[in-house]
Amino acid sequence: MKNTFQVSDQKTRCPWCLGFEEYIAYHDTEWGVPVWDDRVHFEFLILESAQAGLSWATILKKREGYRKAFADFDYEVVAEFPESYVQELLQDPSIIRNVLKIRAAINNAKRFMEVQKEFGSFSNYIWGFVGGKPIQNRLSSMSEAQATTKESDLLAKDLKKRGFKFLGSTTVYAHMQATGLFNDHLESCFRFSEV
């Protein structure tokens, strides 16, 4: 099924982002850009785990709601969310109101800080799974894209061992793509050579 959304700049993009302006802007400015900032990694961990079973477009449309509800992705604040706030979040239509995902975000904030303490930063930890630099996949079509990799399998297994929730290999690989540990822009996409 072809997407009917038209982009006037005539740039060639990965086809998954075509559909609405925020999706294109996300693709053009964020997706695949290497992230070294722990707060950004935490943001994507929350958003990716919230996405489990849903589309990324759904989460992207609720991103501002998540930003407000989750203290601008301040993991130190999120780690201390009381049960009363969990109950408030379950009434908040600006996020995915799934109690397991909300509690997972709080749990993951605590685990995130444990990783920081052990490795100096979460960034140091996660980049270690790809040898400290982005893996450049050279995809000519979306049919070549994978849902998981050996690196995402290893990372997901290690995160689970450390007590993280809602971060299986597929979700972890989505995180690794979003935060630039893998460059999975199609080679024909104008962003492939820019990230």
UniProtKB/TrEMBL annotation:
Q: Which domain of life is it from?
A: Bacteria
Residue sites binding Zn(2+) per the record: 14, 27, 185, 189
Q: Which Pfam families match?
A: Adenine_glyco (PF03352)
Q: Does the keyword DNA repair apply?
A: no
UniProt xrefs under Gene3D superfamilies: Hypothetical protein, domain 2 (1.10.340.30)
What is the protein named? DNA-3-methyladenine glycosylase I
UniProt organism field: Algoriphagus yeomjeoni
GO terms (molecular function) for this protein are: DNA-3-methyladenine glycosylase activity; metal ion binding
An annotated GO BP: base-excision repair
